[in-house]
Amino acid sequence: MRKDSIKLTRINNEVMRELSNIIRAEIKDPRINPMTSVVATEVSPDLKICKAYISVLGDEQSQKDTIMGLKSAEGYIRSLLAKNVNLRNTPEIIFIPDQSIEYGVSMSRLIDEVNGKNSSKED
Question: What is the tally of structural domains in the chain?
Answer without folding.
Answer: 1
